[in-house]
Design brief:
With 47 residues, the protein is α+β, with helices and mostly antiparallel strands. It has helices at residues 3-10, 22-32, and strands at residues 14-18, 37-41. The protein has one domain (12-47).
Length: 47
């Protein structure tokens, strides 16, 4: 990986979208992916 790419990726905000219904996650991810790195989860670790 070249230095320019690493710098660009590290400056992009990351957003975690969590919802138990994937139908709610997809539109948000589509809307926000141009502005930030979008991670999605439909469940999480309980504890």
């Amino acid at each position: 990986m070249n230095d320019r790419r690493a710098t660009k990726e590290s400056s992009v905000a990351t957003l975690l979208v969590v919802d138990d219904n994937p139908d709610n996650i997809a539109p948000l991810g589509d809307l926000l992916q141009a502005d930030c790195r979008v991670l999605a989860a439909t469940s999480g670790r309980h504890g």
